[in-house]
Design a protein that fits this description.
Radius of gyration: 17 Å
Number of domains: 1
Helix content: 40-55%
Bound molecules: zinc ion
Largest sheet: none
Number of helices: 4
Oligomer: single chain
Strand content: under 5%
Length: about 130
């Protein structure tokens, strides 16, 4: 795990282990049809994305950190540059948080998977096939 691999797989919507196949079905997070739909396994290396039931509860912490960074950044921008009143600032921050939800949702899940997955570009196992037996 390195920061570069985590960021690449997160922003490119790629499997954290092989960087060859997608994690989410659609690269557009705002697609109503399948923008937030994940594949169960990597099509290239077979990595099971949801390792256990409730695995993605941990990604809430990542999502919280991303949203907090966004709010802090916008707050600092307001103090030093925009200088809006507080009520307007609150509504804009809420609008940004809701509007950017599909992006933070996807990023937080891929980051959460990447935190616990080693980058192995040559991995060719299909461990998930064992579950079918
Ligand atoms: Zn993979």
């Amino acid at each position: 795990m390195s920061i570069g691999h985590i960021f690449y797989s997160t922003f490119a919507n790629k499997c954290p282990r092989c960087h060859a196949a997608k994690v989410f079905e659609n690269n557009n997070p705002y697609s109503f049809k399948n923008g937030l739909t994940m594949f169960k396994h990597c099509a290239s290396c077979g990595l099971k994305y949801e390792r256990e039931v409730g695995y993605f509860y941990g990604s809430f912490y990542v999502s919280y950190a991303l949203q907090t960074a966004l709010v802090t950044l916008f707050y600092l921008l307001n103090i030093y540059w925009l200088k809006m009143d507080s009520l307007t600032l609150v509504f804009i921050i809420i609008g940004l948080a809701v509007g950017l939800f599909p992006i933070t949702f996807r990023w937080s899940r891929i980051m959460w998977i990447a935190f616990f997955t080693k980058y192995e570009p040559d991995y060719k196992g299909h461990a998930w096939e064992d579950e079918k037996k």
